[in-house]
TrEMBL record:
Its cofactor is Mg(2+). It is found in: Cytoplasm. This is Phenylalanine--tRNA ligase alpha subunit. The gene is pheS. Pfam families: Phe_tRNA-synt_N, tRNA-synt_2d. PANTHER family: PHENYLALANINE--TRNA LIGASE, MITOCHONDRIAL, PHENYLALANYL-TRNA SYNTHETASE. Its EC number is 6.1.1.20. Residues 112-340 form the Aminoacyl-transfer RNA synthetases class-II family profile domain. Binds 2 magnesium ions per tetramer. GO terms for molecular function: ATP binding; catalytic activity, acting on a protein; magnesium ion binding; phenylalanine-tRNA ligase activity; transferase activity; tRNA binding. The keyword Cell inner membrane does not apply.
Length: 344
């Protein structure tokens, strides 16, 4: 039995010495040291030995096991080091090579314009309000002094889903909903940015889907002069301190009186050019004092409360501010166009 143990030790050490991969090394471990390994098989025969021989053979078996175990562990460490070295050689990185350029995105120009306007009005105490794009006929028209059959409805050719549901044609329904939530108690001071939809033929200046920002201020003793001051601040913020504004009489069903706001042409400084059609002025937005009917339908006492509202298109603002001639550039996702305004 001593000779068998010595033979197993020599065999195991020779195999460990010549093995070249870790799986084969593990196979050697199992073959000699496992529960059903060669050394275990030898020890099963110890029952046939005398009492004097058993401790001698047991000690020898432990020594053989320890020697084989140590040899396997040393070989394992060596094979692991060799594997790491090989991996490092195969995966060497040339640090002198130039890096791959990273494509950096940016906010869309329209979002930049909208956030710029939001920043201005939030600094003036306004809150940003939102509402559903699929709107009821009541909030889109009736609550804004546009009852069924009103001729002004034809000005906003609508996408109807049912007789009472449609894609909103302006963000004014957000104003009506917000006033309702206040239950006749002011002040209400909000701007409403969002997408709107109208049945229109897409061309250089029109789109069936576009964005709009409307503002509303309702409180006691709100006057036309407050509206003018607000719009003057907006024009100077967007187009420069040298810009002047003028208000022209107009008509909107939900405001009375109603006005259109023009800004002095930045190209000719009001002298007249092709951009302003020789007038020196460029139309920018519509506004007015909130119609008493609109206040009353929202639960406000028109004898106590008054207010003003205004609405503008961020596309038009961006086109005028940055000299963009075709509204479709905003929606065709041409990266060459969009990259120009990543840092605007």
């Amino acid at each position: 039995m001593k000779e068998r143990l010595q033979t197993l030790k020599d065999e195991a050490l020779n195999q460990v010495k010549t093995v070249t991969d870790q799986q084969a090394l593990q196979d050697i471990r199992v073959h000699y040291l496992g529960k059903k390994g060669q050394i275990t098989e030898v020890l099963k025969g110890m029952g046939k030995l005398s009492k004097e021989e058993r401790p001698v053979i047991g000690q020898l078996a432990n020594e053989v096991r320890d020697v084989i175990t140590e040899a396997i562990e040393e070989k394992k460490s060596k094979l692991e080091e060799e594997a790491i070295e090989k991996q490092l050689q195969e995966e060497t990185v040339d640090v002198t090579l130039p890096g791959k350029p990273t494509q950096v995105g940016g906010s869309h120009l329209l979002m930049n314009v909208i956030r710029d306007i939001e920043d201005l009005f939030t600094s003036m105490g306004y809150q940003v309000a939102e509402g559903p794009e699929v709107e009821t006929d009541y909030y889109n028209f009736e609550a804004l002094n546009l009852p069924k059959g009103h001729p002004a409805r034809d000005m906003q050719d609508s996408f109807y889903i049912t007789e009472e549901l449609l894609m909103r044609t302006h963000t004014s329904p957000v104003q009506a909903r917000t006033m309702n939530k206040h239950e006749g108690k002011g002040p209400v001071k909000i701007i409403c940015p969002g997408k709107v939809y109208r049945r229109d033929t897409d061309d250089a200046t029109h789109s069936h889907q576009f964005t709009q920002i409307e503002g509303l201020y309702v409180d006691e003793n709100v006057r036309m002069s407050d509206l003018k001051g607000t719009l003057n601040a907006l024009a100077k913020h967007l187009f420069g301190e040298e810009r002047e504004i003028r208000l022209r009489p107009s008509f909107f069903p939900f405001t009375e009186p109603s006005v259109e706001m023009d800004i002095s042409c930045k190209v000719c400084s009001g002298k007249g050019c092709s951009v302003c059609k020789k007038t020196g002025w460029i139309e920018i937005l519509g506004a007015g004092l909130v119609h008493p009917n609109v206040l009353e339908m929202a639960g406000f006492d028109p004898e106590k409360y008054s207010g003003f509202a205004f609405g503008m298109g961020p596309e038009r603002i961006a086109m005028l501010k940055y000299g963009i001639e075709d509204i479709r550039h905003f929606y065709t996702n041409d990266v060459r166009f969009l990259k120009q305004f990543h840092r605007v």
